[in-house]
Prior knowledge:
By secondary structure, this protein is α/β, with parallel strands linked by helices.
Amino acid sequence: MPTVPPAQLVDDYAREVTSRLDRLTALARDGGLDAAVEIVADAVAAGGVVHAFGTGHSEAFAMEVAGRAGGLIPTNRVALRDTVLRGHHTVDELYGSPPLERDPDIAADLFATVTREPADVFVVASNSGVNGSVVGLALLAQEAGHRVVAVTSLEHTAAVEPKHPSGRRLSEIADVVIDNTAPYGDATLTALGDVTVGAVSSITSAYIAQLLTVLASARLVERGQEAPLYVSANVPGGDDHNRALEERYGDRIRRGA
């Protein structure tokens, strides 16, 4: 097949990314994220913590929500490795085959590692929205009375079968669903042959995470409430500022591995 010039690949991929970011920008501007923003702002205002969870590359979304400069301090990243670090599972299980993320039974063990209070909420990201751990955790959070926000590809999740025994997708469980706008299979370019290249879900999900943070913080300020935000640890006084606010939440927020 003909060789595609690198400049064309760059332009094509840039269009795929920017067109999706433009859609999300318009959605946010028109109030399409307001329901999720309210859930996050209400939780923070009530002294709650936002627990963010994603497996595989969707863990990047949780990292974007929890524990970064300019982000909300009452946030906690939930990860499958918590079942090894704080549970009874082994490293071999974590990296076994099939992947632990597809095991619906792991959700209960993972949920047990999360220190929770009634005002807490869960924000769960999964491009496919069908793996057992993701669906299972969302179900357990709801059963425990917590609101759940999902970030997923509606196109992809509609095209694949659920893997959780409930037969449900993440998008069918969450109180609020945000479409990350990624296509089926995530990758966007076909110019190199039959296999597509150029995934977009990590970029769009990170943008969604930041939009939720920005808008929830603004909502708190509008109400006359504090938006407890991280200052970069790499600026003078950052550590002291962050540590003083982190102490309010104790072991409900975890930073590290």
